[in-house]
Amino acid sequence: MKQALLKLHISVFLAGFTGILGKAILLNEGLLTWYRIGITVVSLFAWMVWKGKLERISPANVWRLLGTGALIALHWVCFYGSIKAANVSIGLVCFASVGLFTALLEPMMTDKKFSWQELGLGTLSLLGIYLIFHFDDRYRTGILLGLASAVLGALFSVLNKRYVEVARPQTMMVYELSGGLAMLSLLMPVYLAWYPVESVLPSLSDWVYLLILAWLCTILAMDLMLQALKKISAFTQNLTLNLEPVYGIAMAFIFFQENRDLKQSFYVGMSLIALSVVWQMLRVVRKGSGV
Fold this sequence. Notes:
This protein is an all-alpha fold. The protein has helices spanning 2-24, 29-51, 59-85, 88-94, 98-109, 116-135, 140-163, 169-194, 204-229, 234-240, 243-256, 264-287. Helix 2 runs antiparallel to helix 8, helix 4 (88-94) packs across helix 7 (140-163) and helix 7 (140-163) packs antiparallel against helix 10 (234-240).
């Protein structure tokens, strides 16, 4: 259990860089996600074929994983849309509401029993977001996109928990992200028609950031997360992911000086979210099981 939690926290630390990189990359949220997934799928597929590690799975499970991957692609589009519409700090802190949505969805979609404690912890995170939303109306579009990202992220993790025994983590990642890439490729012409851009090609600096995003923040982070998910619940995973804002916001303060633009309500809200994370971690360690 301790090893699973360690892998989970390393993956969350790596995920904390995604917001910073999303802000630094000049592409819009749709293209950014498409390139991120494309680089990840090509790199991971080539490596697994070279190593002979790509597993064959049943057609039914292939379709399940492809569909699940479409959710993570939409989650990333909304997540980066939140950052572009507001800032890194707002986009990351909104993702904390994923704990509440997981507490509601997981008992409905798996054999896990409903937990009032988990619902309470998730609600505590949501209260933190409400304080920011209510007292600082500059970022409402970004907050709404962040909440949409959280719903999609919760649904993705719950489904991942159901399919985690289908194949090894790397194989699951290839199939899931291939589904996300296919879905985005089909939607991209329509998306670009609605939100036209001057160029669809990344700049040189964007390529560097995209490679870091794909190789470290996606392949390595998702591999560690899927390994951890074999031992812990989707709720524990998603509530731990609430530490992603803590890491990411600290980086945003350092690199973009976002602390100059945030009101006191932001810090009160973030404190409630941090409290919910610490509380859940204490529950997991005390019980010593995959809560």
